[in-house]
Write a structure and sequence with these properties.
This protein has helices at about 5-15, 25-30, 95-125, 135-160, 165-175, 225, 350-360, and strands spanning about 20-25, 35-40, 45, 45-55, 60-65, 70-75, 85, 90-95, 180-185, 190-195, 200, 205-210, 215-225, 235-240, 245-255, 260-270, 280-285, 290-295, 300-305, 305-315, 315-320, 325-330, 330-335, 345-350. It has seven helices and 24 strands. A hairpin with a 5-residue loop joins β15 and β16. The two termini are about 25 Å apart. α1 runs parallel beside α7 (about 350-360) and α3 packs antiparallel against α4 (about 135-160). The chain has about 375 residues and is an alpha+beta fold. It folds into three domains: about 5-45 and about 290-360, Beta Barrel (conserved putative lor/sdh protein from methanococcus maripaludis s2 fold), CATH 2.40.420.20; about 50-55 and about 215-285, Efflux pump adaptor protein, beta barrel domain (Elongation Factor Tu (Ef-tu), domain 3), CATH 2.40.30; about 65-210, no CATH class. The strands form six sheets. Strands 4-13-16-15-14-17 form a six-stranded antiparallel barrel. The chain has a four-stranded antiparallel β-sheet with strand order 1-21-20-19, with helices on one face. Strands 3-18-23-22 form a four-stranded antiparallel β-sheet, with no helix packed on it. About 25% of the residues are buried.
Length: about 375
């Protein structure tokens, strides 16, 4: 069919059927315009499908492991992708600052013992009436200050990674060590390794990122219309990866760029099939909505005067049926409308029908 024939048919139709909701076409005209139809897809009850989403790690399951003191990395014992247990050694460092912190604790410990002995002596002297009560109170204050200083030094070593047992052994043996052991705070997987053996680091320099990968989170961007009937607790599935979970939070503000709402879900089943950062298509069971919905191929949708429409096959041609878009995907769009369920819709040649409809109802 040449362009002149197409324009002639379109002009005749727009002249004869202006302002109508139906477009009469013979089977020959339908064939000449290249229009093909397909059955309306099976209806869905309250489900949004084909929604773009991204797999992320829940914030409370991601840890950054840093060096607490200036040090040099002597050895790393794990790599990216390794599974680690809580308390497992990740790296060993050499830190003169650790030796200095241990020496400070031993000094504070000695001062605390001396202050305790002085307090015991002055309490006896005060009871015997040999010294004034004011002197005994001064000695008691000094003992408390010494204990506080020792507690402070202990806490510093705990922040440096020393356990209570290691600190107790240090106080008993007086053996100083410059070896700083870095351990995993959780049972999980090493996602990043930021340093290597021989590298010198300042305090608080990141070494590893360790994360627990079960459950995983899903971040979904939805239009305001799609999120209107959603509720926390609604079921979410990722059909392509056999994963499922539930919505945990629905954003209260729109993003500035694309005017969408952020919806977060927690995926507890099928997480072994997913990877953080992965882009997927999700489905949401919109249980609060009783509207029947259809998942329509994007090729069948058109917009006339700002409204989304489908072209329904009739005995005389096609009927223009307005629909409400609930969710738009890359290949298909979820809509609601007044359908019986046995209709046939135009899936190709829709542009020809739209041109005719625009001639009937005015410019879009």
């Amino acid at each position: 069919m040449n362009k002149i024939s197409f324009l002639v048919i379109t002009l005749l139709l727009s002249t004869q059927y202006a302002f109508a909701q139906d477009i009469p076409l013979s089977e020959l005209q339908i064939k000449q315009l290249g229009i093909a139809t397909a059955p309306l897809p099976p209806k869905q009850q309250g489900e949004l499908t084909g929604i773009p989403a991204q797999v992320v790690i829940p914030s409370n399951q991601l840890y950054t492991v840093s060096t607490p003191l200036p040090a040099m990395i002597e050895q790393t014992l794990v790599g990216v992708g390794d599974f680690v247990h809580k308390g497992q050694t990740l790296a060993q460092l050499q830190s003169p600052s650790l030796t200095e912190a241990q020496r400070s604790l031993l000094q504070a410990y000695t001062q605390s013992l001396l202050a305790q002995e002085n307090l015991f002596r002055d309490e006896q002297l005060w009871k015997d009436g040999i010294i004034a009560e004011s002197r005994m109170r001064v000695t008691r204050g000094a003992q408390r200050e010494a204990n506080a200083a020792m507690s402070e030094r202990k806490q510093s070593l705990k922040l440096a990674g020393m356990t209570e047992g290691a600190i107790r052994q240090l106080l008993e043996s007086n053996n100083l060590s410059s070896v700083l052991t870095i351990t995993s705070p959780i049972e999980g997987v090493v996602l990043e390794k930021s340093a290597s053996a021989g590298q010198r680091l300042d305090a608080a320099s990141p070494l590893f990122k360790v994360a627990k990968l079960n459950p995983l989170a899903l971040e979904i961007q939805l239009s305001l219309a799609s999120a209107r009937n959603l509720k926390v607790g609604a079921s979410v599935t990722i059909p392509a990866f056999t994963a499922k979970g539930k919505i945990t939070a629905i954003g209260q503000s729109l993003s500035g760029g694309n005017q969408t709402i952020l919806v977060r879900a927690l995926i507890r089943e099928g997480t072994e099939n997913l990877r953080p950062g992965q882009l997927v298509e999700a489905s949401i069971a919109n249980q609060s909505s009783g509207n029947t919905q259809w998942n329509i191929p994007n090729s069948a949708l058109s917009r006339i005067n700002g409204k989304a429409v489908l072209f329904i096959k009739t005995s005389i041609g096609f009927h223009i049926e307005p629909v409400t878009i609930l969710s738009e995907g890359a290949q298909s769009t979820v809509v609601s409308g007044s359908f019986k369920g046995d209709e046939k819709i135009a899936v190709t040649g829709v542009s020809a029908l739209k041109s005719t409809a625009m001639g009937i109802g005015g410019a879009e």
